[in-house]
Amino acid sequence: MKVIGFNASPRKNGNTAWVINKILENVHEKGIEIQSWNFSDLNIKPCQGCLGCHKDGGHGCVINDDMQKLYRELESTEVLILGTPVYMGQMTAQAKTFIDRLFAQISPRFSPYYKEKKNKVKLILVFTQGNPDPCKFQVYFEYLKQMFQLLEFDVKEIIVVTGTRTEAANEQKELQKKLENMDLFTVRRDQI
Ligand SMILES: Cc1cc2nc3c(=O)[nH]c(=O)nc-3n(C[C@H](O)[C@H](O)[C@H](O)COP(=O)(O)O)c2cc1C
After folding, report:
1. What predicted TM-score, i.e. pTM, was given to this entire model?
2. Does the C-beta of 5 come closer than 6 Å to ligand 1?
3. 52 belongs to a structural domain
């Protein structure tokens, strides 16, 4: 029983990290094991497109870097909280690099090596943005939801934190209440 948080912001103490850590804290209070990672602490190279991961039946990514640690984390977790700030209307480069590297492990539906996973990792997506309008990037977030479903994640929730330029996430009282009260975060054993 484990819940992990991946922060794809370069800022280890920024808005995205705060939201992820708040969720993890709540989960930890229920006695569930947690683990968190900042991509900015890790050396993760972009996918080289060598397809070495699918050679001879597929033995995983051949790049020996810190992504290997995240592959192992994903193997042993029930819930992933993945957070990224919006950069130029999209996810950060760190988030995209991570997602491309999932090609090796997850063998997505468009791959000839696709095998349906029995135990899908439940995914909570966290986006933070300076723009105060919650609908501003909604189409993009919905698109990402579908992309993650294609990658065999069970997308449970998309949390969008807005207006962080004028009010940081940790100053947003309503957000704090919402994170504490959301069913998904008071994760009960029968839910994960
Ligand atoms: C390079 C860069 C690009 C950004 N692009 C956008 C954007 O397109 N839309 C937006 O609303 N906020 C944008 N922002 C603001 C961040 O999304 C916002 O401050 C976010 O909460 C930062 O999260 P963090 O503190 O976890 O790093 C950008 C910030 C940076 C540094």
Report:
1. 0.94
2. no
3. no
- Give the CATH number, domain containing residue 31: 3.40.50.360
Question: Strand order of the sheet with strand 2-7?
Answer: 33-38, 2-7, 79-85, 122-128, 154-161
Number of domains forming the structure of the chain: 1
Phi, psi for residue 157 in degrees, rounded to 5: -160, 145
Amino acid at 166: T
11 C-beta closer than 6 A to ligand 1: yes
Atom of ligand 1 nearest to the CA of 161: 21
Q: Is the CB of 92 under 6 A from ligand 1?
A: no
Tens place of pLDDT for every residue, the chain, 192 residues? 899 999 999 999 999 999 999 999 999 998 999 999 999 999 999 999 999 998 888 889 999 999 999 999 999 999 999 999 999 999 999 999 999 999 998 888 888 888 888 889 999 999 999 999 999 999 999 999 999 999 999 999 999 999 999 999 999 999 999 898 766 544 444 433
